[in-house]
Every structure is written in structure tokens, then in C-alpha cells.
Design goal:
- The complex is a heterodimer of chains A (381) and B (580).
- With 381 residues, chain A is an all-alpha fold.
- Chain A contains 13 helices and 2 strands; from the N terminus they run H-H-H-E-E-H-H-H-H-H-H-H-H-H-H.
- A two-stranded antiparallel sheet of chain A has the order 1-2.
- The longest helix of chain A has 36 residues.
- Chain B is of the alpha+beta class and 580 residues long.
- Chain B folds into 2 domains: 117 residues, Beta Polymerase, domain 2 (2-Layer Sandwich); 304 residues, Cytochrome-c3 Hydrogenase, chain B.
- In chain B, the strands form 5 sheets. In chain B, strands 1-2-5-4-3 form a 5-stranded mixed sheet.
- Classes of the chains: A mainly alpha (381), B alpha+beta (580).
- Chains A and B meet through helix 5, helix 9, helix 11, helix 12 and helix 13 of A and helix 10, helix 11, helix 13 and helix 20 of B.
């Protein structure tokens, strides 16, 4: 590890953090405009052309707001909590590659790659960092000395615990398919076919679990505006609130980037474009663009869900996580492993048994949900 | 329409000799019950005669006679005219009347209100605290000898604002008011130990028992008055076990302005725009109820065309209110504004019609005693026709398609917040809340007013009494309202719109009247006592939002916090009416 190495990491990290922060600002704009479109409104269109300066106006407002702290709040934790929440959201994407090795370029005599760190346990890194973020929320809720906030923090803990497992297991399915935990390998392994196609139900589980992980609707229990006012950040205002807000939106971006890498081929082109001029092998600099497009579409999915779905009740959320998602994702790991074993030992065509088995498992799960959970919940008194 | 005449059909004096005497004051009807026999009488009325629904409880302060009167209106949920019975007591503190909560639990809030505003002590009431005023308020404002600090005159229009138009604020003339009094030994510089919240928390505490045997503590959370989903400044003090509700007490009155006292100072006509402010989403229905009550006293009937216009407007109001209620229920369930904004689009179109006929979108002030203020302008009837025959049926189907089968809405709604049919009657709930519990009780059919007896429509009813049914019944009611509007559009005759010459000052003969309409939120009643003067002696509003909340606590116990919000949304309250 030389000094030049450190400087390279620092600069890359800084650039990526700035991209994330800018991305957060314009994600709020994107969300507000998209929500407005869905809700037959116009959305912010006053500040700047098409309202493009709206995020900047919001930022200025938040910076100049009074820093307020409740009288009996735990001062240290209250200040620390937004930082603890934001940091994981910023560092989690350090291992995600944004372009192929062939897109690396020369700068000051060094080869600059399109990723910040090339960890051979990249997936594990993501898992571990993702679970740290919840500490910030719990501490924010607890240190506020507010009952809504405490309830929000508690909900967040329980929710995180139950969805972390399903999330981890859907990671394992990907690891088995790619035969590696290094993200670069995982992305390259999707050259032939995206894992979202090979393991569709795993992808859906991943999306559901990440919605819960980043506290987005309909799993926004810790905030639950209609129930807990603003949940864990009820007492936050000004820049501290902005940090919490930033963490939430950066987590969205991060998780979409990860989803794109794990299931949608990351910087790889869609598989049907592999041998055309639009392929990443032919035109390497298209890689970052593909990541951007995929993230953009995934983000729209999140916004769409928020705009259209009511919130499910907290205990139902837990029941769904433990009774449906966890067994289902366990079954998927099992099925994926068998499929890969058969494909390697007998015939590569057996690979296509995985999506079929996956869909069948998903179908059985839905049937089970319909038969047991749904029946019970719909029983009239 | 003339006043219903229960006197002929039901001779209570013969049935309960010695207990009950007919009310023989001119212009009055009903029965005067002996105070000591009130409980027995009410029990017999409910169990033997079938008057199971206590619609309204209120008090009247007859200062010149030195009497206080408690007035009850009871009805049968099978329909038909009601029974109006009264208890008279000497106007000497403490004014005590036995509480009817044990027989009609729906009287709970109304008796608290009568205690709060009139100082009538209901002995045997389980939780007799102030409800609209705050706990350390001095006096009972609806008593005729109570005067506020800046008291000017007994009746409007005040001389200070009339006739020269020189406007001088009363508070400028006397900085602290002429009528300020302090309790003995009061020193404003010293802090008092009085905790206005203590009584509330004491009332909650008696239910706080842990059952699991673990050393756990219940959590007391105040939801509101500033909370995104209490639909205004409504507050619920909730005792939680984890996230499960153990007990709760609604706290209201944050928007209280003593509507009734102001109403008793206003002239009769001045109250018409004032009723708009009760439930500000349904001003046409509020006008309707008040106009009916006063017309009963005056003995006039509006002309045919006015009746059709009234019914058309009232039903449009119902649709506007119900799409709003559905939208906000969805909002309370956590759908981020999208269903609400879709629903609101239709409401705006209806408000366009209100604006065309009355000049205002929300505060319509459209009804007059004996008719309506203006005739329909050109083109409005076509607009209503387009809405009623084409756009609204389509849009209601669309909304229902989007919402009725949504998995989350079903999971959140079905079997949650159940109100059984028996409880719905006992707690005097009304409107969609009552009908979603399987009681097809609708004032428009039970005791038809205006031209409803000539119109063809069904009373919407759903059997299960849960959140989901309360949402779906609103769709059913919108469809029935559309049927009514379609008929009125087809049948509306030409003709005058006022039965009498419009006048600023109406002559209302002495007497009492109870006018009730089926408002969108439930049974909206106006109890008016006139002494022949320009202002009503007593002006009482039976607010459905307020009385429906009686059932709120029992519905929520055992549910989660998230359900509390949804249940409140499914009751559909408006604080302007609830707090009055």
C-alpha cells in the first residue's frame, strides 16, 4: 500500500461520495416529480428550469434552520445518530464495480479502475455494513426522549432482524450462481444471463427485503407518518434531519446499485446485446451508463411502490418476514445449489431448471400465504 | 313537512301513570318524566317499547322559570317517529339528574357535554369530566347567567357595531373585560399545583393492569392534538402494551368555540351560515338540518322546486364527503396521498356546482327558511346531469376497482376494528358507521323528510362492521346518492324557490323542534327552542362526529396503534363539528 494508492482511494472515494450526495438531492427531485405525475399533480417546477434548483433551495433551507435539541435528549447520541446512519449508506457501495476492467483508463501513470475497492468478500462486506445502519436509527429513536421516536426505533430493530435473514439468503443464491463473493466476478458471471432471470423469485425477495431494509413504503414502519408522526426522526430538524434524510435516500441509491450488480448484470449490457456494438466488451465506457440506467429504473420502482401502496401493519410485516420470506429463501438456496450441481456434473442445460424450480417455489409460497396467513387474517369476528 | 306526532300513537302518560305527564307548554311536545323514575322509565322505553336508539341528550336552561331541563330524543332502529322526553329539575346547584349511561351507553359523551356546558350533574356517570372546555374552566358557559369577560349584549346585532358602523372592539373599551372574576385567593404570579391532565390520566389508570405476570410497564402515549392522522386537533390518550392498545380516552375540545352559545346570540338567520362551519366538508347538509328544525317551528314547507334542489345538493354533498372520507382513510392506511388526490378530483367537480349555485365552494350558506337562497343558474342542471349520469358512476367504479381488492387494504381492513350491531346501537352511532355494522337505519327512510319518501333508493348496509365494510359502504352510498340525484334531475319541476318572502328577520313562534337529517357523517340533529324572540333560546347541535366517537374506544381496545389511526379514519370525523 503506497501513498499513491491511498491518494487514489481518497480521490475516488471523495468523487463517489459527492456523486451520492448530489444523487440524493436529485433523487428527492426525481421522487417528487414522479410522485406528482402519478398523483395527477405537477410537482416542484418553480425553482429554476423545470424546478431543477428545488433540491438546492431545500438544502439551503435545511442548513439555515435552527439546530434544535429536545431538553432531555441524550446529547451525544442525539448528535451521533445521524452520522452513524449516514456513514454506512455512503461506504456500502465501495465494492460495487461501475465499469469493466477494460474500461480502466490511465491517469498520472496509474491505471484507474471503475471501482473503489476490489474485495474478494465483497458480498459479505455489503451484508455487514448494511446491518450497521440500523444502529443509527435505533439510537436516534432512543436518544430523542420521545415516545413516537422510541417506538419507531424499536420497530426498526425488529424489522431489520427479520428481513436481514431473507436478504442474506438471497445473497447466497447469487453467490452459488456466480461461484464467487467478489462483485466483479458476480457481474462478469452474468455475461450470459442475468441472475434476475435465472433466479426470479430470489430477485423479488431481494427487492422486498431491501424495501424493508431501507425503510421504504410499504415497509416504512419506523417512520410511519400516519401512526408515529415521523417515527425515529420526530425530534430532528435542520441539518441533523437532513443527514437522516440523506441516509435514507443514499441507502436507496446504494441498494439499487447493489441490486443492479447482483441481479441485473451490473455494468454488463443486457444479455441480448452482448455481441452488438452496444456490448460492454465492444464499447467499454457504456458500463457506467448501464449501471445508471438500471439504478434509475429500480429507483422508479421504489417510488412507484410508495405512490401506490398502503402500509401493511407492523405485526403482519413480521409474520410475512418470518413465515414466508425466510423459508422461501432457504428453499431457493437449496434449489439453486441442486441446479448448479446438476448443471456442472450432468448437463449445463440443467441450469434452466433453476428458474423453473424458483418460480414453482414462489408459487407454492403464494399458495401457502393464501391458504394460511390470508385466511386467518381475513376471518371475520 | 309537519312535525311528527308521537303523542297520538303512544300514550305514555296512561302507560306510566304518575311517572310521566305530557308536556303541555304551547309549541312543545313530548313527555315530562319524574326525575326519580327516569332510569325505570328509560329501561321500560328501551326494553318494552323498543326505543333502543338514544339519538340526542341535551339540556336547556330555563332561567326565568328557575328550571333546568334535560331533553332526550329516543328512536326505534326499525324506523318511525321518536319519543321526546324531558326531566325538569330545580335550578339550584348542584343540579342533579340520574345518568342514562347504564341504559344507553351512547349518552356518555353527551352527558359529559351537558355537564361541561350547562352544569347538570349526572349521578352515576362513570367518567363525568369536562369534555369540551378545559378542566379548570370556571362556570358553565351555556347557562343563561354566564357571561364571558368581554360580554357586550345578550343578543346580536350588538349596538357597538350598529347602526353607525363604528367598530370598536370590546377589548379596547375594557382592557381586562367587565366581567372578569377570580377565585378567592387567586394570585396570577403564583404557580398553581392544579394539573388539568390529572383527571384524564386517573381515568385511564383504572384499566392499567398487566396480565402476563412479567414486571412490565404500560406505555402512555398521547396521539395528538398535533398528529398527522387525527384529522385535526383531536387527541387520544392511549395506554399501550407493546404496540397493543390496552385502553384509550379521546380528548377533544381543542377547536371548541361554543358554537351553541354564539348560536343563541345570533338571530335565526345568522345561524344559517354559521352551521356551514360545523362540518365544513358538508355545509349543504348542515344547512338542511337547521332549516328543517326552524321550518318545523315556523310551520312552513318549502315549494316543490326548492325541495328538489335541496335534496340534489344534499346528495352531492354526500358524494363529495364520501370520496373525501375514502381518500383520507387510504391516507391513514399509509397510501401516500395518491388515492386521496384521485378521490379529490371528483370532489372538486362537485364543489364547482356548489360555487355556481351558492357563490362559495365550501361555506355554501345556501338554504333559507322556506326554500333556498337562489335558483339554479343556467347550465348547472346540465352539469349535474353529466356528473350524475356519466362521470361519477364511471369514476366510482374505477376507484372501487382500484381499492376493493387491494391485498393490503383487505388485510388492514377485514376483521379489524369491529363494531357489532348491538354495540353500534348502544353507543348511538349513526351514519355509515351504524350501517356498516348491519343496521339499515337511515333517517331518510326511517323518518323521511323533504321529498325522500317519493324517491327511489336503497339503504346501503354491510354486515360485518369492520374497517373494510366501513370503506365499502361509502361506495354503496355514493351509488345510492347518484340514483337519487338522477331522479331529481329528471323530475325537478319549475316554480318558485321560496315559500315565504325572503326576510332578514324571521318570526319564529315559541316552542321546540328537533330537526334531523341523514348527513354524510351520520344523523345530524338540531334541537331548537324558541321563545318568540329574534334569537333561539336554545340551539343545540347533535353532531354525528362527536357521538360516533363514543364507540371509538371500545373499537380500538386490543388493536394496534396502526389500527387506531385506520379506525379513526373509518369513522370519518371532522373536528369542526366534533368540538363545535
Amino acid at each position: 500500500m503506497t501513498l499513491a494508492n491511498v491518494i487514489e482511494w481518497l480521490v475516488k472515494g471523495l468523487v463517489w461520495v459527492l456523486i451520492l450526495l448530489g444523487g440524493f438531492a436529485y433523487l428527492t427531485y426525481y421522487e417528487r416529480r414522479a410522485l406528482a405525475r402519478i398523483q395527477v399533480r405537477v410537482g416542484p417546477n418553480r425553482a429554476g428550469p423545470w424546478g431543477l434548483l428545488q433540491p438546492i433551495a431545500d438544502a439551503i433551507k435545511l442548513i439555515f434552520k435552527e439546530e434544535f435539541m429536545p431538553a432531555r435528549a441524550d446529547k451525544l447520541l442525539f448528535t451521533l445518530a445521524p452520522i452513524i446512519t449516514l456513514t454506512p449508506a455512503l461506504v456500502i457501495t465501495a465494492v460495487v464495480p461501475f465499469g469493466p476492467e477494460s474500461a480502466s483508463f490511465q491517469l498520472f501513470g496509474r491505471t484507474i479502475t471503475w471501482y473503489i475497492a476490489d474485495l474478494n468478500v465483497g458480498v459479505l462486506y455489503i451484508m455487514s455494513i448494511a446491518s450497521i445502519a440500523v444502529y443509527g436509527i435505533v439510537l436516534a429513536g432512543w436518544s430523542s426522549n420521545n415516545k413516537y421516536a422510541t417506538l419507531g426505533g424499536l420497530r426498526s430493530t425488529a424489522q431489520m432482524l427479520s428481513y436481514e435473514l431473507a436478504l442474506g439468503l438471497s445473497f447466497i443464491a447469487v453467490i452459488v450462481l456466480a461461484n464467487s463473493t467478489r462483485l466483479l466476478d458476480i457481474v462478469e458471471a452474468q455475461k450470459g444471463m442475468w441472475f434476475a432471470v435465472l433466479q426470479p423469485v430470489g430477485f423479488v425477495i431481494f427487492l422486498i427485503a431491501t424495501l424493508a431494509e431501507v425503510n421504504r413504503a410499504p415497509f416504512d414502519m419506523p417512520e410511519a407518518e400516519q401512526e408515529l408522526a415521523a417515527g425515529y426522526h420526530s425530534e430532528y430538524g435542520g441539518m441533523k434531519f437532513a443527514l437522516l434524510f440523506m441516509a435514507e435516500y443514499d441507502k436507496m441509491i446504494a441498494i439499487c446499485t447493489i441490486a443492479a450488480s447482483l441481479f441485473l448484470g451490473g455494468y454488463r449490457e443486457p444479455w441480448f446485446l452482448r455481441d452488438t456494438v452496444l456490448g460492454v466488451d465492444q464499447t467499454p465506457w457504456l458500463g457506467p451508463l448501464y449501471v445508471f440506467i438500471k439504478v434509475f429504473i429500480l429507483l422508479f420502482g421504489m417510488i412507484w411502490v410508495r405512490a401506490t401502496w398502503p402500509r401493511i401493519r407492523y405485526d403482519r410485516l413480521m409474520a410475512f418476514g418470518w413465515k414466508i420470506l425466510l423459508p422461501l429463501s432457504l428453499a431457493l438456496v437449496f434449489l439453486t445449489s441442486i441446479g448448479m450441481l446438476l448443471a456442472e456434473q450432468v448437463n449445463p442445460l440443467y441450469q434452466w431448471g433453476i428458474p423453473l424450480a424458483s418460480l414453482a417455489a414462489g408459487f407454492i409460497a403464494i399458495l401457502g400465504m393464501y391458504q394460511t396467513l390470508r385466511r386467518k387474517e381475513y376471518a371475520r369476528a | 313537512m309537519t312535525a311528527p306526532a308521537p303523542v297520538e300513537t303512544l300514550d305514555l302518560a296512561a302507560r306510566f301513570p304518575g311517572w310521566v305527564t305530557p308536556d303541555s307548554r304551547p309549541g312543545y311536545s313530548g313527555w315530562i318524566v319524574e326525575k326519580d323514575k327516569l332510569l325505570d322509565f328509560a329501561r321500560a322505553l328501551r326494553d318494552d317499547l323498543g326505543y333502543d336508539y338514544l339519538s340526542s341528550v341535551t339540556g336547556v336552561d330555563y332561567l326565568p322559570e328557575g328550571k333546568m331541563e334535560v331533553v332526550y330524543h329516543a328512536y326505534k332502529t326499525t324506523g318511525g317517529p321518536g319519543v321526546n322526553f324531558k326531566v325538569q329539575v330545580e335550578r339550584r346547584d348542584p343540579v342533579e339528574v340520574p345518568s342514562l349511561v347504564s341504559i344507553y351507553p351512547g349518552a356518555e359523551f353527551q352527558e359529559r357535554e351537558a355537564w361541561d356546558l350547562l352544569g347538570i350533574k349526572f349521578t352515576g356517570h362513570p367518567d363525568l369530566r369536562r369534555i369540551l372546555m378545559w378542566e379548570d374552566f370556571a362556570g358553565h358557559p351555556l347557562r343563561k347567567d354566564w357571561r364571558e369577560a368581554y360580554f357586550e349584549e345578550e343578543f346580536k346585532p350588538f349596538k357597538s357595531r350598529w347602526p353607525e358602523g363604528k367598530f370598536q372592539m370590546a377589548e379596547d373599551k375594557a382592557r381586562l373585560g367587565d366581567n372578569l372574576s377570580f377565585p378567592a385567593g387567586f394570585d396570577p404570579r403564583k404557580k398553581t399545583d392544579f394539573d388539568p391532565e390529572k383527571a384524564l390520566y386517573e381515568a385511564l389508570r383504572q384499566y392499567q393492569k398487566t396480565e402476563s405476570g412479567l414486571e412490565t410497564e404500560h406505555l402512555l402515549v398521547n396521539i395528538g392534538p398535533h398528529h398527522p392522522s387525527t384529522h385535526g386537533v383531536f387527541r387520544v390518550a392511549v395506554v399501550l402494551d407493546g404496540e397493543t392498545i390496552v385502553n384509550l380516552k379521546p380528548v377533544m375540545g381543542y377547536l371548541h368555540r361554543n358554537h351553541e352559545k354564539i348560536g343563541e346570540r345570533n338571530t335565526f338567520l345568522m345561524n344559517m351560515p354559521y352551521t356551514d362551519r360545523l362540518d365544513y366538508l358538508t355545509s349543504m347538509s348542515n344547512n338542511f338540518g337547521y332549516a328543517l328544525a326552524v321550518e318545523k317551528l315556523m310551520g312552513i314547507t318549502p315549494p316543490e322546486r326548492a325541495e328538489y334542489i335541496r335534496v340534489m345538493m344534499a346528495e352531492l354533498t354526500r358524494i363529495a364527503n364520501h370520496v373525501w372520507a375514502i381518500g383520507f382513510l387510504l391516507n391513514d392506511l399509509g397510501a401516500y396521498f395518491t388515492p386521496m388526490l384521485y378521490a379529490q378530483e371528483e370532489r372538486e367537480l362537485i364543489l364547482d356546482i356548489f360555487e355556481a349555485v351558492s357563490g362559495s365552494r365550501m361555506m355554501c350558506n345556501y338554504f333559507r327558511f322556506g326554500g333556498v337562497a337562489r335558483d339554479l343558474p343556467d347550465g348547472v342542471l346540465e352539469k349535474v346531469r353529466d356528473l350524475a349520469f356519466d362521470r361519477l358512476p364511471r369514476k366510482v367504479d374505477e376507484l372501487e376497482n382500484l381499492l376493493a381488492d387491494n391485498e393490503i387494504i383487505r388485510a388492514r381492513g377485514i376483521g379489524q376494528g369491529v363494531l357489532t350491531a348491538e354495540d353500534a346501537i348502544r353507543y348511538s352511532t349513526s351514519g355509515p358507521l351504524l350501517r356498516a355494522s348491519g343496521i339499515p337505519y337511515d333517517v331518510r327512510r326511517a323518518e323521511p323528510y323533504s321529498i325522500y319518501d317519493r324517491l327511489e333508493f336503497d339503504v346501503a348496509c354491510r354486515p360485518n362492521g369492520d374497517i373494510y365494510d366501513r370503506m365499502m359502504i361509502r361506495f354503496d352510498e355514493i351509488r345510492q346518492s347518484l340514483r337519487i340525484i338522477q331522479q331529481t334531475v329528471k323530475q325537478i319541476p319549475a316554480g318558485p324557490i321560496m315559500a315565504v318572502k325572503p326576510a332578514y328577520q324571521v318570526r319564529v313562534p315559541p316552542g321546540e323542534a328537533y330537526g334531523r337529517v341523514e348527513g354524510p357523517k351520520g344523523e345530524l340533529g338540531f334541537y331548537i327552542v324558541s321563545t318568540g324572540k329574534s334569537s333561539p333560546w336554545r340551539y343545540h347541535v347533535r353532531a354525528p362526529s362527536f357521538i360516533n366517537l363514543t364507540a371509538f374506544g371500545p373499537m380500538c381496545v386490543g388493536q394496534k396503534i396502526a389500527d387506531l389511526v385506520a379506525i379513526l379514519g373509518s369513522i370519518d370525523i371532522v373536528l369542526g363539528e366534533c368540538d363545535r
